[in-house]
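hey can u check if this looks right to u? its 292 residues, i copy pasted from the old doc so theres a chance i mangled smth
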Amino acid sequence: MTTPDYSRNPANYCFRHPDRMSFALCQRCQRTICPECQTPAAVGVICPECLREQQKGRTPAQKRAQRRWGRGGGVAVRAGSAPVTNWIVGITAGMFLLDLLLRQVGFNLQGWLAFYAPTLYPQFGAFEPWRLFTWMLAHASFIHVGLNLLSVWMIGRVLEPMLGRWRFLALYLISGLGGAVAAALLAFTTPVVGASGALFGMLGALLVIGRTLGGDVRGIMIILGINLVIGFAFGGISWQAHVGGLAAGLAVGWVFSTTRQASRSRRQVVLLGVIVAVLLVLLALAPMIYVG
């Protein structure tokens, strides 16, 4: 199906707001719903109509419990609500501040979190696999952490409501893994810190999904291009991690775009597993390339 076909397809628009594109489906009726119409469910989100039907079937005990705790059957997700994004921003900022405090007593937390490829392989004298992900929590300066987290927050508030919480978290982590793998392959002995690899993955996924839905993605392409050029042009920036995160994000975005239907959820999990497996295989090859 071509991009114009997607843009004309009403299934790609919220059934309650036909002018709003979305990527999220109600888990019960499988209709497309925008962030304003989403209510968190046990798995995924549901639309207001299905929520009302669900509330009609509540037992007296359930009604009493909901009144007692003041939930009234659920709180609708507001447009742009992104709890996972907020947690990522909060935890990352907290780790940066903790690193500053610990440095006052002589402990370098950033050195323990940063990605450094030789520490992943026992033949180099260490095995610290947590660095594949913790490098996204470490930053070199206030400007570094501030710009990265502002970008993550802005893009996450667009992307997370479209994908849902778990898909968004998977995208963030796989993109970070992709950035680490690229750094190991292309800059084996260079320490790397920052959330920019995951950030580039978010942009890559947004590019693919936006294109799939028939949206105008020229702005995203311009932002990506400018940031890639900056990474290549200035020293001290790991363009390798940027490229790796972008590649992983593009792949994950393609998986989400081609397995959007509920009937393809198993295929989605399998394909995400394949992406992770490929990244781990490439990671295993990194010391061979370095030594050779």
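Confidence is low (pLDDT under 50) at residues 68-79.
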